[in-house]
Amino acid sequence: MNKTKEIWIAGFALFSLFFGAGNLILPPFLGVKSGLDWWIVVCGFVLTAVTIPILAIFAHAKLQGTLYDFGKKVSPLFSTIYCLLIYLIAVAIPSPRTAAVTHEMTVQPFFETSSLLTSVIYFVFVFIFAINRSKVIGLIGKFLTPIIVLILLMIIVVAFFTAPNIVTPTTFKTPFVDGILEGYQTFDAIGGVVVGAVIIISLNYSSFTTFEAKRKLIRQAGLIAGTGLLLIYGGLILSGSLFSSTFTENATRIEVLSGLSTQTLGNFGTAFLSVLVALACFTTAVGIVTGTADYIKGICNDSQAAYIITAAVSSVIGIVVGSYNVGFIIDVAVPALMFLYPITIVLILLNIVPDKLASKLVFRGVVIVTFIFSIPDFLGFIIPRENLAGIKSIIPLAEFSLGWVIPALLVFVGLNLLKNKAHE
Questions:
Q1: Could you tell me which CATH class the domain 3-324 is placed in?
Q2: How far apart are CA 154 and CA 392, in angstroms?
Q3: Are the CB atoms for 147 and 276 separated by under 8 Å?
Q4: How far is the C-alpha of 68 from the C-alpha of 78, rounded, in Å?
Q5: Tens-place pLDDT, residues 364-382
């Protein structure tokens, strides 16, 4: 196969892996809330929903290993715990969220049935497909993504030319920061450290055989995927902004996406998009459950029983959490993301800088400091924020839930300066 063609195929495959249908509900909602400041929100959202995930792919290009390799410089125990937490979060939040999105977009508008019933049926099928490893899921995914992208592009173009002349003011106090934190909800940075390993494995069957050739391919594929995500996310945020005056102040994320598609493509277009999103959500859930079960199977000496039990437990968790509404699941996810996302970001960044700047000592120091200074951000979404006002007032950026950034940067620079001084 032509190598240029392989690069584009890898780029589109990577885009498909990142492009979770559940993520579609986030950008239009951000657009409605951001109003005239939509472009500032785009900058923040793209930072955590596009740039960091693509940097994760670049890190994989450098490591060419597995998820475990991202944290092994800290310690083997840390890396094992980190991997387990990543997969636990995956089956507890983004996987169930796909069921909730399916119910609210595809079932609820047409049938007066409970979300629990939808969740039960949904995850029974997820379990069946995960156990049987049906190739149908892969085939569906290949066709679904291009069709959904085409519909979204139609929504964006129509929205641009038919939007009302009224754009509401922003409701965000700090649009850039709100964009960053909403980008956490895409789980794309976590997805980047997970799916990058999938790309590495698939390249073993390509014409790119050398380490450097694979590294170049992954980087080029990452740029293609990142460009695609930037266009879709940015376009949907702009579309939401242009139609912001048509939504009530308390409109939900699902209502915004459905309302935007109805106003641009009509009822038929909305119904068609809803069905496609439901199918795409399903493939995402099967992928998460299968990937988690594979990981547990691997650390249990390739035990098939471990695989089946993990798939079953993941599906049960999906049924319980997926029976709640999307807004609730997103709110519940925030504390976990405030804890895990900063650590994921620093691991990605440490794995792409030159090795001479990322010794084991630097890895350990930066990760430990990131963990410590993420605690107030984490607690800020669990206990009343006024209880943390004192400590947050002395940590730079803590009021924006980014208290870990400056300390992590200072430790990174400080440890490298000490190392260089010691070598003089």
A1: mainly alpha
A2: 44
A3: yes
A4: 9
A5: 999 999 999 998 888 877 7
Q: What are the sequence ranges of the domains in the chain?
A: 3-324, 353-424
Q: For residues 294 and 3, give the distance between their C-alpha atoms in angstroms, rounded to a whole number.
A: 30
Q: Which residues contact 381 (CB under 8 A, 6 or more apart)?
A: 334, 335, 338
By mean pLDDT, which of 16-30, 116-130, 134-148 is the weakest?
A: 134-148
Is the pLDDT at 343 greater than 90? The verdict is yes
Query: How many CB atoms are closer than 10 A to CB 161?
Result: 8
Token reading at 187: 């789980």
The burial class, CB within 10 Å (0-12 / 13-18 / 19+), for 186 is buried
Percent of the chain with pLDDT over 90: 42
Please, are residues 3 and 211 in contact by the beta-carbon 8 Å criterion? no
The residue among 232, 231, 248, 234 whose CA lies nearest residue 168 is: 248
Percent of the chain with pLDDT strictly greater than 70: 92
Query: Letter for the amino acid at 183?
Result: G
The two three-digit tokens of residue 28, written as one number: 């239009």
Q: What is the 3-state secondary structure (H, E, C) of the chain?
A: CCHHHHHHHHHHHHHHHHCCHHHHHHHHHHHHHHHHHHHHHHHHHHHHHHHHHHHHHHHHHHHCCCHHHHCCCCCHHHHHHHHHHHHHHHHHCHHHHHHHHHHHHHHCCCCCCCHHHHHHHHHHHHHHHHHHCCCHHHHHHHHHHHHHHHHHHHHHHHHHHHCCCCCCCCCCCCHHHHHHHHHHCCCHHHHHHHHHHHHHHHHCCCCCCCHHHHHHHHHHHHHHHHHHHHHHHHHHHHHHHHCHHHCCCCCCHHHHHHHHHHHHHHHHHHHHHHHHHHHHHHHHHHHHHHHHHHHHHHHCCCCHHHHHHHHHHHHHHHHHHHCCCHHHHHHHHHHHHHHHHHHHHHHHHHHHCCHHHCCHHHHHHHHHHHHHHHHHHHHCCCCCHHHHHHHHHHCCCHHHCCCCHHHHHHHHHHHHHHHHHHHC
